[in-house]
Protein: Response regulator transcription factor
Organism: Amycolatopsis nalaikhensis
Amino acid sequence: MRVILAEDSTLLREGLVRLLAEEGHDVVAAVGDGDALVSATAAYRPDVVVTDVRMPPTHSDEGLRAALEIRRRWPETGVLVLSQYVEKRYAAELITGDGERVGYLLKDRVVQVGEFLDALERVGAGGAAFDPEVVRRLLARTTHADPLATLTAREREVLEKMAEGHTNAGIAGQLFVSASAVEKHINAIFDKLGLAHSAGYSRRVLAILRYLGS
C-alpha cells in the first residue's frame, strides 16, 4: 500500500515510517505540515494518507483541513486521521460524504501496533475505522429527547461496535452472541433510529455517525 504520513513530531513520524516499511507498505512521502501533505498527495496519489489534526504553523486544525481537502479532491484516497484528543466537530466533518476510506484514531491507539495497522488496512480497503473512545464520546452527546434513548443496553453495545467499523461477525465474536442475534439487534437499531439498512458496514457507520452528529 502506498502511504503518505503527515506528523510534525519528527520522532513519531520517523517511527511510523519505519513501522510501515517493515510491514511492507511503501511510504512515498513523510511531511510535517498540512500544505506539504496536500502537495505530496497531488504528486504521489497514495492509497492512504495518515495525518495528525494539529500541525504547524498554528497547531490548531491544519491537518484536519488538509484531510478534508484531500477527500474533496481525491475521494479515491483513504484518509486516516490521528488526534491527541476527541475532536467531536472534526469527526463529524470528516465523515461527511460516502463514509468510505476514512478513519479517526486517538494517538494512544498507535501504540497498539496491531490496532493501528488493522485500521490502516481497513481504510485502504475502502472501509472505515473509528476509535472506540471517539464513538463513545459521540454517543455521549445524546439527550433524553433523542431516539437513541430508546435503545436497550445491548443495542447500544452493538451500535458502538458498528460505529467502530466492525462487521456483524466481528460484533458477534466480541459480544459472545450469535450472528443472528446481532442481525436482530441491528434491525432494531435502524428501526428505532429511522435509518435505512445497508449491507456495507462502512455505510452503516456513516448513517449512524451522521445521525449522532445532527
Remarks:
- The mean pLDDT is 82.
- Residues 142-213 form a domain with the Arc Repressor Mutant, subunit A fold (CATH 1.10.10.10).
- DSSP finds eleven helices and six strands in the chain.
